[in-house]
Design brief:
The complex is a heterodimer of chains A (215) and B (444). With 215 residues, chain A is mostly helical. Chain A contains nine helices and no strands. In chain A, helix 1 packs antiparallel against helix 2 and helix 2 runs antiparallel to helix 3. Chain A is extended. Chain B has two domains: 72 residues, no CATH class; 256 residues, no CATH class. Chain B is built from 18 helices and two strands. Chain B is globular, with a radius of gyration of 25 Å. Classes of the chains: A mainly alpha (215), B mainly alpha (444). The interface between A and B is large, with 44 and 64 residues.
Chain lengths: 215, 444
């Protein structure tokens, strides 16, 4: 379970980058800078997904969040006037009560976090029977053997992972109904946003249908 | 055989590196990728520079001119002269621009355009830097990051033209990304993998180009790709007549040329993806036989084949640019959302039906359509004929469906636009009077 070699180095680099960028997201005064730091966090988290062997999730994370959601974020930030927060007023969020509340919340959150991580780690060890050193070595061997069964890449130096196929198969085999429900939900959201955004004037003027001429 | 040794660069370099006391592991995983990356970056940069030269030459020939002729023979050294000019120009920053983002945006653009080349299969074996299972997804996701650079450049310039260009580009690229991704799904149903090398070798095993199975998908991908690259006729983000130069109005010197290089690199990326997904990539008839006898010559020839196909697609880019006028902004959006995306969805449905039909027909009344589906769909002659017929049918079905959906649309119908813009259609011999309905709309 412990990281070694280059894997560990990359993990620490990306983990620290994600944390620092996340901090800067809330510390930056300019909303566009905040959005940029959020993008950096998302990219670093995508890199952590790659380290976990979940390449598909990493690719989707970049495609959906960085390429889609964050572009729309920036779009909105640029269209809406956010000058007021930029122009100072340092005392706005620094009253004693606010500071105390956030400190208490931070302590509670970190306690819960540490508890959850400990529980999760022990649960993983128990599930995979990785109590003794030999069992861990055996699990590593099994993983290595599974890796060797995969098809080699075009360059011939490594193996092609199968996680995309696994995601697709489990999505359509075990989660087909939730998937369809989510798609209906998105459709409702799309239609709703169009209905909200469209005024009756636009209905008449920019509708594709030609206006009826009675004259 | 000495001549053929020239086509064995990996062994030569490997031998040299082993002499430098590097382990084979280090060479495989560290040194060799760096050599390939260096080769690709240099190659793409040079290609981008000479693409500008070709573009100027081709446009000149199309307009019965000579194009650049002064620097070097036939103006061949023109791109180098341009590069020196741009490098030595002053790097200006507008007053009250957001300094960091203004300086940073061109780099995002270049990185997003260049990183994609990591997974592009230029050739088999050592002709590809890396082969990952999410190849195509990686390409789509990284190139979608490129839009950030355009928005940020537009916003940080503190100029209204640049901001409008940035907003236009983001709307345009986000809408065409959808159609572009969906146009590829049909081809993925045949290849059964997202790895680009895997897609190419699936076409090689089936000995067919997917453009024959997927003509509709190819057309949609090409149009959305051109729109995604902000090239004419979809170059609204930098429409000279309206926005000066769009998002890069305030950029000068080296930073401007980075945007320029990224644009050409992105063009090369789209052509390379279209080549490997629809035009068979490096595959050519008789490839396997050559591969067994002369492995390195095989790679070199494959590389040449790939580059030729890519160059042909790049020519299409230049051709279209000097043939069509720029679209209006509402036409661009309508083309994306009402033509490309429905057509892409239809293509997915039709392809699924076709794949199902061909598999169902296998073994029906002694018909033999499917050879194997282990590594991509591998069809027999009959199966291929059925699939090609389905593909050709798809074009007509899509044309019918699109003309039905957009039956009353005014986007590309100039007569209806005229009527709509004037809001009147006067009867013959009478003066134009606004009707009650249109007057009510106008008053609202």
């Amino acid at each position: 379970m412990t990281l070694t070699g280059w894997e560990a180095a990359f993990f620490w680099v990306f983990a620290i980058a994600a944390l620092v960028a996340a901090l800067l997201t809330i510390l930056a005064r300019n909303a566009v800078h905040s959005a940029l730091f959020l993008i950096s966090t998302l990219v670093a988290v995508a890199a952590l997904f790659v380290l976990l062997g979940a390449e598909f999730i990493a690719g989707v994370q970049i495609l959906v969040y960085v390429g889609g959601v964050m572009v729309l974020f920036l779009f909105v930030i640029m269209l809406v006037n956010v000058g007021a927060e930029e122009r100072g007023n340092e005392m706005l969020f620094n009253r004693p009560a606010q500071v105390a509340t956030s400190a208490v919340f931070l302590v509670l959150l970190s306690l819960g976090f540490i508890y959850a991580i400990r529980q999760g780690y022990e649960g993983l060890l128990a599930r995979d029977n990785l109590i003794t050193q030999e069992q861990r070595a055996e699990a590593a061997n099994r993983r290595h053997a599974r890796q060797q069964d995969l098809r080699p890449t075009a360059t011939g130096t490594s193996r092609l992972s199968q996680d995309t196929q696994l995601v697709g198969a489990s999505l359509y085999r075990f989660a087909a109904l939730p998937f369809e429900i989510a798609s209906v939900l998105l459709l409702v959201a799309i239609i709703g946003s169009v209905m909200l955004a469209r005024t009756s004037k636009q209905e008449a003027a920019t509708d594709d249908l030609e206006l009826k001429d009675e004259g | 055989m000495d001549m053929l040794a020239l086509f064995a660069p990996p062994e030569l370099i490997n031998g040299l590196l082993l002499k430098l006391r590097l382990g084979q592991e280090t060479i495989n995983y560290v040194v060799w990728p760096f050599i390939q990356i260096g080769a690709v970056v240099t190659g793409v940069a040079v290609w981008a520079a000479y693409a500008t030269y070709l573009e100027r030459k081709i446009s000149a020939f199309m307009q019965a001119r000579l194009g650049p002729m002064r620097v070097g023979p036939w103006g061949l050294l023109q791109p180098i002269a341009d590069a020196i000019k741009l490098l030595t120009k002053e790097d200006l920053k507008p007053d009250r621009a957001d300094t960091y983002i203004f300086f940073f945006a061109p780099f995002i653009s270049v990185v997003a355009a260049f990183v994609v080349f990591v997974v592009i299969p230029f050739a088999p074996d050592w002709g590809v830097i890396t082969d990952i299972n999410i190849g195509l997804l990686f390409v789509l996701s990284v190139s979608s990051v490129g839009v950030l650079a355009l928005i940020l450049a537009g916003w940080s310039s503190n100029s209204k033209y640049a901001l409008l260009g940035g907003l236009r580009s983001s709307a345009q690229m986000v809408s065409y990304e959808v159609a572009m991704g969906m146009a590829l799904i049909g081809a993925l149903m045949f290849a059964r993998t997202l790895s680009l090398s895997g897609i190419v070798s699936a076409q090689g095993l089936d000995s067919i180009w997917y453009i024959f199975y997927q003509p509709l998908g190819f057309i949609i991908f090409l149009i959305s790709g051109i729109a995604e690259n902000n090239r004419a006729p979809f170059d609204l983000p930098e429409a000279e007549s309206e926005l000066v130069a769009g998002f890069h109005t305030e950029y000068s010197g080296m930073r401007w040329s980075l945007f320029f290089m990224a644009e050409y690199a992105a063009m090369i990326v789209v052509s390379a993806i279209a080549t490997s997904v629809f035009l068979g990539g490096w595959y050519f008839p008789g490839a396997w036989r050559l591969g067994i006898n002369y492995p390195h010559l095989f790679v070199a020839v494959s590389l040449l084949v790939f580059l030729t196909k890519m160059a042909a697609l790049l020519y299409v880019y230049f051709w279209l640019r000097w043939t069509f006028p720029r679209y209006r902004y509402d036409q661009l959006m309508d083309l994306g959302w009402k033509w490309m995306i429905p057509a892409a969805l239809l293509n997915i449905t039709l392809t699924a039906i076709a794949v199902f039909t061909v598999q169902a027909l296998d073994g029906w009344r002694g018909m033999n359509t499917v050879e194997s589906i282990a590594r991509g769909v591998n069809l027999t002659g009959t199966g291929k004929l059925i699939m090609i017929a389905f593909g050709a049918l798809g074009v007509f079905v899509a044309a019918g469906m699109l003309s039905y959906i957009n039956h009353g649309a005014r986007d590309f119908n100039l007569k209806k636009q005229r009527v709509g813009i004037r809001l009147v259609s006067p009867p013959k011999g009478q003066t134009a009077v606004a009707s009650a309905a249109t007057a009510a709309v106008a008053a609202e």
